[in-house]
């Protein structure tokens, strides 16, 4: 799968890219929601988005809310964040996130979530 990682932390982008490559996926990266939104609406193939919450320029939740308002793309989005309050989780899910991964996470957790998505997509 082509997986777009959206995070303002370069170490996180590198770490998650490495995990995805190990799992046989092709990582792409963006350092904020605005860049990611442009990539998703530019027509390039992206199968899954892993989305940080706290980022400059456009946060993860702003990214979700913009896509909900504009119905710009239907690519599945997993939140990948340290934000763990039930209110925030609910807000992300209500705005179109398919799943929620708490940082820090192990490669196993990411692998399981991606496999569940692949089964859903058939
Ligand atoms: Mg961040």
Features:
122 residues, alpha/beta, 5 strands
Descriptive notes:
With 122 residues, the protein is of the alpha/beta class. The protein has one domain (2-121): Rossmann fold (3-Layer(aba) Sandwich), CATH 3.40.50. 47% of the residues lie in helices and 19% in strands. It contains 5 helices and 5 strands; from the N terminus they run E-H-E-H-E-H-E-H-E-H. It has helices spanning 10-22, 33-41, 60-70, 86-94, 107-121; strands spanning 2-6, 26-30, 48-51, 77-81, 99-102. It has a 5-stranded parallel sheet with strand order 2-1-3-4-5, sandwiched between helices. Strand 3, helix 3 and strand 4 form a beta-alpha-beta unit. Helix 2 (33-41) runs parallel beside helix 3 (60-70). It is globular and about 35 Å long. The mean pLDDT is 96. Bound molecules: magnesium ion. Residues 7-9, 52, 54-55 line the site of magnesium ion.
Q: State the strand order across the main sheet.
A: 2-1-3-4-5
Question: What is the subunit arrangement here?
Answer: single chain
Shape: globular
Total individual domains: 1
Mean pLDDT: 96
Distance between the termini: 13 Å
Largest sheet: 5 strands, parallel
Please work out how many helical segments DSSP would assign: 5
Topology pattern, helix = H, strand = E: EHEHEHEHEH
Bound molecules: magnesium ion
- What's the CATH class label? Alpha Beta
Q: How much strand? A: 15-25%
- Full CATH superfamily name: Response regulator
Please state the CA-atom Rg, rounded to the nearest Å. Answer: 13 Å
β-strand number: 5
CATH architecture: 3-Layer(aba) Sandwich
Which residues form runs of ≥5 with pLDDT under 50?
none
What is the helical fraction, as a range of percent?
40-55%
Helix/sheet category: alpha/beta
**What is CATH's topology name?**
Rossmann fold
């Amino acid at each position: 799968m082509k997986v777009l990682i959206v995070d303002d932390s370069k170490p996180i982008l590198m770490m998650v890219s490495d995990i995805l490559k190990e799992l046989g996926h092709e990582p792409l990266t963006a350092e904020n929601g605005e860049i990611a939104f442009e990539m998703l609406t530019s027509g390039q193939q992206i199968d899954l988005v892993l989305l940080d919450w706290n980022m400059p320029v456009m946060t993860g939740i702003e990214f979700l809310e913009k896509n909900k308002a504009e119905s710009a793309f239907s690519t599945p989005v997993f939140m990948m964040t340290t934000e763990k309050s039930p209110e925030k989780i609910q807000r992300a899910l209500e705005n179109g996130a398919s799943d929620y991964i708490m940082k820090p996470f192990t490669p196993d957790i990411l692998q399981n979530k991606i496999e569940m998505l692949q089964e859903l997509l058939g």
